[in-house]
Amino acid sequence: MKNTLYKALALVAISIAFISCSNDDNNEASSGNGNLTLKFDNAFGANDLILNTQGNTTSNNEVLKISLVKYIVSNVVLTKADGTTFAYPKSKSYFIADESTAAGQQFKLTDIPAGDYVKVKFGIGVDEDQWKLGAAGQGDFLAQANDAGMLWSWAAGYKFLALEGTFTSANVTTATPFMIHTGKTGTDYNYTEVTVDLPTKALVRDNITPAVHIITDLSKIIDGKNKIKLSDNNAGGMGAMIMGGANLPLITQNISAMFKVDHVHND
């Protein structure tokens, strides 16, 4: 009887080990390729962004109502748990984040080597090697940027980020337009790269497409490490137009700190 019981327990143990190994095998990366989605969720401070109607207050007590936010996401590089990296092909690595459209809030990366990914790096803007309009590697992005209003002009290159709306402050009591556009201005290139850690691994498989949910805190554009008052840039009461000058490099520094990964879905 005792021997029979031992045999039964041994069979149970073997079965559990087999199931465990099978589950581990299912979680291991295959040698094939898969896809991964980057989702950009715009916020202002602790609040999800609502265009046109939401009042967003800065630490300088300026209240912004944002009507437009767009930025170029480029040069995506994924890092695996073992430290190896995969650079997404530049010909496919230019996207325009746009709060006003569903297509502008998530971007699917295809043909990613299967693996467990722990970091994502990306640029905001177009890197200097690729800045020349129509440069090799941009694919059809030039036409896309033109249609989205993300060119200064055909000769002057790309806008990297565009934030527009109206604002009020203690000294500006009537809703007044503001416009912040970054890009190459003079000797300031204003391109920046961001690296974010993933709170859980993104498991790219041929049957799993992870979604990396990135929060973009737009308040940091003028209310980050560098504090910039729109009312100080309200030239002649005609509106705060920041498209160059000393403030633009400060805004670029702020932009590099406005992204974080909220969570990862492995579905």
Kindly summarize this structure in a few lines:
This protein is α+β, with helices and mostly antiparallel strands. Helix content is 17%, strand content 43%. The chain folds into 2 domains: 1-29; 31-266.
Please tell me about this protein's structure.
This is Copper-binding protein MbnP-like domain-containing protein. Residues 34-234 form the Copper-binding protein MbnP-like domain. InterPro entries: MbnP-like_dom. Keywords: Signal. There is one protein chain. Strands 3, 4, 5, 6, 8, 9, 10, 11, 12 and 14 form a ten-stranded mixed beta sheet that branches. Strands 1, 2, 7, 13 and 15 form a five-stranded mixed beta sheet that branches. Helix content is 17%, strand content 43%. Mean pLDDT is 88; it is low at 1-26. The protein is α+β, with helices and mostly antiparallel strands and 267 residues long. It folds into two domains: 1-29; 31-266.
Specify the overall morphology. globular
The succession of helices and strands, N to C, reads HEEEEEEEEHEEEEEHEHE
Weakly predicted, low-confidence segments: 1-26
Mean pLDDT: 88
Q: Which structural class matches the secondary elements?
A: alpha+beta
The tally of helices reads: 4
Q: Percent helix among the residues?
A: 10-25%
| Rg on CA atoms, Å | 24 Å
Provide the domain count: 2
Largest sheet: 10 strands, mixed
Compute the separation of the termini in Å: 47 Å
Bin the strand percentage.
35-45%
Annotation, overall tally of beta strands: 15
Protein name: Copper-binding protein MbnP-like domain-containing protein
Pfam families: MbnP
Keywords: Signal
